[in-house]
Structures are given as C-alpha cells and as structure tokens.
Write a structure and sequence with these properties.
This protein is α+β, with helices and mostly antiparallel strands and about 110 residues long. About 25% of the residues lie in helices and about 25% in strands.
Length: about 110
C-alpha cells in the first residue's frame, strides 16, 4: 500500500502578502511513514517568462537548469492533488528525499 500524505508545506504560504500568486517556490511532502520530500516548483508561466528573458540577454544557445516539477497552477488545492498523484503513482524521486525516518508521523 502506498503511504499517504501527512502534510504538505508550501513556501509561498509563508510569504507576505499571502494573496500573491507565486511563479516559483519550494514545497515539502511529508508522508505518514516519516519520509519527507523537498521539491523546487515552477509554473509554466514562469518557464515562458524565463525563456523570453534569457533570449533577450544572450545570443548564444539558451538554457537553464530546471526545477523538480512544473505546474499549471500554484494554489493549495491543485498542489495537494498533484502531491497525492505523485504518491499514488509512486513518482516521488529518490533525489527529492530529504528525510527518511522509521518513526511514523501521527
């Protein structure tokens, strides 16, 4: 059985003002079995904005190192659904794992 999410921390919920829509942020997925995963997340809008800015600045081939996850919408309900799907599909990557603990989270 796939472990369920104990909590989802979203960096932008710590920002002021809280009603701004973020373009990029960090999120942490905590599972009931004690594992924690940290992801760097960008929106598709940010990717497009970044692409334009990089093309304006350079004449050489343009590239950037991407995030762990690119999402359409950055709001809690959407990100909760995405986190649930990542867990259900066992798509959480080992390189995102920041804590593995044998103590389950209540």
């Amino acid at each position: 059985m796939t472990p369920q999410i104990a909590s989802l921390w979203l960096e932008f919920e710590e920002w002021e003002p809280p009603d701004e829509v973020p373009d990029f942020f960090n999120m942490m997925i905590r599972l009931h079995d004690g594992r924690e995963y940290a992801l760097n997340v960008w929106t598709f809008a940010f990717v497009e904005q970044l692409r334009k800015e990089l093309h304006e600045e350079r004449s050489a081939p343009v590239f950037t190192v991407g995030p762990d996850l690119i999402v359409d919408v950055a709001d809690r309900p959407t990100l909760e659904a995405i986190a649930d799907r990542l867990v259900q599909e066992q798509s959480l990557r080992d390189e995102w794992l920041v804590r593995e603990d044998d103590t389950p989270i209540a």
